[in-house]
Specification:
The structure holds 2 protein chains of 2 kinds. Chain A has helices at residues 46-52, 60-70, 78-90; strands at residues 15-17, 22-26, 31-36, 39-43, 94-96. By secondary structure, chain A is α+β, with helices and mostly antiparallel strands. Chain A has a single domain (15-96), classed as Coenzyme PQQ synthesis protein D (PqqD) (Arc Repressor Mutant, subunit A), CATH 1.10.10.1150. In chain A, the strands form 2 sheets. A 3-stranded antiparallel beta sheet of chain A has the order 2-3-4. Chain A has a two-stranded antiparallel sheet with strand order 1-5. In chain A, helix 2 packs across helix 3 (78-90). The longest helix of chain B has 18 residues, at 206-223. The termini of chain B are far apart. Chains A and B meet through strand 2 and strand 3 of A and helix 1 of B.
């Protein structure tokens, strides 16, 4: 596995799960997983919460706002969400509506 | 071994099910990883057996499904199996040579929820020759690739590399490009089963590997993001073993054509382990309770140098089957590791392979087919066949 590289993208652009990738809840593993050709990553906790909101309509900014509303006690979540999604983007798990 | 009062380590949760649906195959690849004595194994599982296995697998938490073989397209109930897998929520991968893929079948697979097709150049030498001379097998492969594209699957190609095709790396990559590949895996032969039988014939030279990798790098530069190319080194040229299957009985469950459940494709070769059959037991028992799947879990079975090695969490001592094949004891370190007292068994093979020409007394190549398999199962020398 190569070191995950962060690939920044525009925070107002809607993001979607990349083609051929599928995100689902796995009861037996008790966590969300992202499935792709011959591979799988587990997305426990906050990773799953972020991914649940990636639908091709919401942008990073919209996801941050929603999470901060859902978890007011957590304070600012922006830095964590940006970290996670830039790595996800670098891994090719998500794409922006521009297609990259 | 469990004693009264001992605490058993929690059994890991598996997520990968590989279904070797059949040992039938129209190809005769000399590096096939199916057991060399497959011809003596019992009858294939029925459609109902596979459906039951798939259902039990989902309950156990298995989610990635490989449909392989042999050639899985040889099963005429593949459409039913794919549809059941789709219904159950598997992410389903079909590993195929493409021989037998028709538009009617791929349409049914799409409808049934198949997620991914990996097209293998299993008989790559012949395909190469065909390609250069534009004959029939290449046309079949091209047709399969067109169908894969038409039905909006990612174009994923796999080619097994060895002494006889590494010098054609450039042509193989160009062939993949012509076919519209998005991902190409150039996987060097792993020496098990038929490949082990043919090891002297298939082991590449260091020069070949270096040239092939240089060609691959140059090709990567030319095509850029259009194609993603993976070049997998042969472990004989490494000094640390692969983390085989991410550890025994850790994430991967293989069900062979005759129903035998295995922690990897090759484990059936290991002596003294009774591998359970899905006809007799459910997958939950097989994974959680069967002695076979517990045999090399954790690290209590390890010998030195693995037992006290700081890297044991990383590579789990390598491959049990390779340790057994080369040293006669599956609890030894995988000899690929240069800390293993048996590492010379690897380096001797590698040094032998550096001769530019194979000596005349090199054992002839043995093709994977039913006749050779029956001979090998009976402990006879296989007849020399030309496939």
């Amino acid at each position: 596995m190569a070191t995950p590289k962060r690939v920044p993208f525009d925070h107002d652009t809607p993001i979607a799960i990349a083609k051929y990738y599928r995100f689902q809840w796995e009861p037996a593993q008790e966590c969300h997983v992202l499935l792709f050709p011959e591979g799988m990553v587990q997305l426990p906790g906050s990773g799953g919460e972020i991914f649940k909101r990636i639908d091709g309509a919401r942008s990073l900014n919209a996801i941050v706002a929603e999470l901060e509303q859902a978890y007011p006690e957590a304070g600012s979540l922006r830095a964590d969400v940006v970290d996670f999604l830039e790595v996800a983007h670098g891994n090719g798990w998500i794409r922006t509506s521009a297609g990259a | 071994m469990e004693t009264a009062g001992s605490v058993r380590a929690p059994v890991p949760k598996p997520h990968w099910l590989n279904a070797e649906l059949t040992y039938k195959c129209p190809l005769h690849c000399v590096f096939c990883y199916n057991p060399i004595d497959y011809a003596k194994f019992g009858p294939e599982l029925s459609t109902d057996d596979w459906i039951r296995v798939l259902q039990q697998g989902r309950e156990l938490g298995l989610v990635q499904l490989g449909l392989s073989g042999g050639e899985p397209l040889m099963r005429d109930d593949l459409e039913i199996i794919v549809a059941e897998a789709g219904r159950l929520g598997y992410y389903t991968n079909l590993i195929t040579s493409g021989i037998g893929l028709t538009e009617k079948r791929i349409a049914a697979f799409k409808e049934g929820g198949l997620n991914h097709i990996q097209l293998s150049f299993q008989d790559s030498t012949r395909e190469m020759n065909d390609w250069l001379s534009s004959t029939k097998t290449f046309e079949l492969k091209k047709r399969a690739a067109e169908l894969i594209q038409k039905y909006d699957y990612p174009m994923v190609f796999n080619c097994v590399m060895h002494r006889h095709n590494l010098d054609h790396t450039k042509e193989i990559l160009e062939m993949a490009e012509t076919l519209g590949a998005e991902y190409v895996e150039l996987a060097n032969t792993q020496f098990y089963a038929w490949a082990m039988k043919n090891r002297d014939q298939l082991m590449p030279t260091r020069d070949q590997l270096q040239r092939a990798e240089a060609v691959t790098n140059a090709f990567r530069e030319r095509v850029g993001d259009k194609m993603k190319i993976y070049f997998v080194h042969p472990d004989y040229y490494e000094t640390r073993p692969k983390a085989c299957m991410n550890g025994w009985g850790s994430i991967f469950l293989n069900v062979a054509a005759d129903g035998v459940a295995l922690p990897c494709h090759e484990a059936r070769m290991l002596p003294g382990i009774e591998f359970p059959n899905v006809r007799d037991h459910d997958l939950k028992w097989i994974w959680n309770e069967s002695p076979a799947f517990g045999t090399y879990r954790g690290d209590t079975w390890m010998q030195e140098p693995c037992r006290s090695c700081p890297e044991k969490e990383k590579d789990f001592g390598g491959c049990r089957c390779q340790a057994f094949m080369l040293t006669g004891d599956a609890t030894n370190a995988d000899p690929v590791c240069d800390l293993s007292p048996h590492h010379h068994l690897i380096t001797e093979q590698v040094e032998k392979a550096q001769r530019p020409q194979l000596p005349a007394n090199t054992k002839p190549i043995v093709f994977r087919d039913d006749r050779n398999s029956r001979a090998l199962a009976a402990g006879e020398q296989p007849p020399v066949t030309t496939a």
